Amino acid sequence: MSQAPRMNETPAVKYLEKVTARALELASGLRADVEHPWHRHMACLYGTVLEYGHAIAVCVRFDAAIGASPLLRSLLEAMVDLKNLAADRQYGYVLSANTLKERLSFLRYISSSEIPSIARLRSDPRLSVRITELNALVPEQIARAGGRERLKLKHRFEAAGLAQEYGTTYSRLCGMAHNDGDALERRHLAKDPDGKVTINYHRAGFALDLEDELMMAASLVAGCNKIIHEALPSTCQEGSDALMREIELVAAAGGHPPA
User: Best label site of 80, 178, 186, 241, fewest CB within 10 Å?
Assistant: First the structure.
């Protein structure tokens, strides 16, 4: 394995970086009310989308492309959640209730666990106070959410109108993230012109095989950009629309990065 990182200057890497940078620039025009659960979740989720886009480009550019597919899977999940949030303002209360329930469950586990490594946490006097606070907050937040539970992942895709993507694109990305046979062979087996197969324990330049994934990431970032600028107050709606039109033109031309 090489000691110095290899720079992968592919057009698709550069295009993802360009789209992510433009979306981040446009985010300065968003006017989110951090006191409102719906605004808060939308804004934070969109920030995560931008970080995923950046991270995918960094992984590929610096010869760590193995990290691209798991990040792309998370980016797709974030886009689904953002789309559902934009369509249902009350869903912010559902997510807040879910967050508090998970936090309460974790603290209860610490308080009752006998694991020696967390003895210090268990003895913290603030633990019981926080559990008492959450015991009061959780029912209140569940009531605000109308008693609704957070949707399971498959149902979140369906609610976003992306049921087909769940069974195709998302399934394939899961296979690549979970090291199934196809993903392993794609990464580490190479066939020369004579048909001889060799094993590469570290495939330098693997980014050359990832144009589709990089262009998908650029499309998802631009799509999320459109969603949030339409959902929240924004002074950059025109720029957001222009970025989405560019992505659509690229897709119509075959999905390859523009020169």
Answer: 178
Distance CA 187, CA 93 (A): 42
Alpha-carbon span 229 to 23, nearest angstrom? 10
Average pLDDT over the chain reads 89
**10-37 as b/e: b if 16+ CB within 10 A:** bebbbbbbbbbebbbebbebbebeeeeb
Distance separating alpha carbons of residues 159 and 87, to the nearest angstrom:
10
Residue 30 contacts residue 229 (beta carbons within 8 Å): yes
Query: What is the spatial distance between Cα 82 and Cα 79, in angstroms, rounded to a whole number?
Result: 5
Q: How far is Cα 153 from Cα 168, in angstroms, rounded to an integer?
A: 14
Read off the pTM.
0.85
First to last CA, the chain: 32
For residues 54 and 20, the answer to whether their CB atoms sit within 8 Å is: yes
* Residue 72 in tokens: 């792309």
R_g (Cα) of the chain, nearest Å = 22
- pLDDT-derived band at 189, boundaries 50, 70, 90: confident
| Interval 42-57: pLDDT, tens | 999 999 999 999 999 9
Which pLDDT value is given to residue 1?
46
Q: Got the DSSP string for 180-193?
A: -HHHHHHHHEEE-T
Element holding 197 (H helix, E strand): strand 197-199
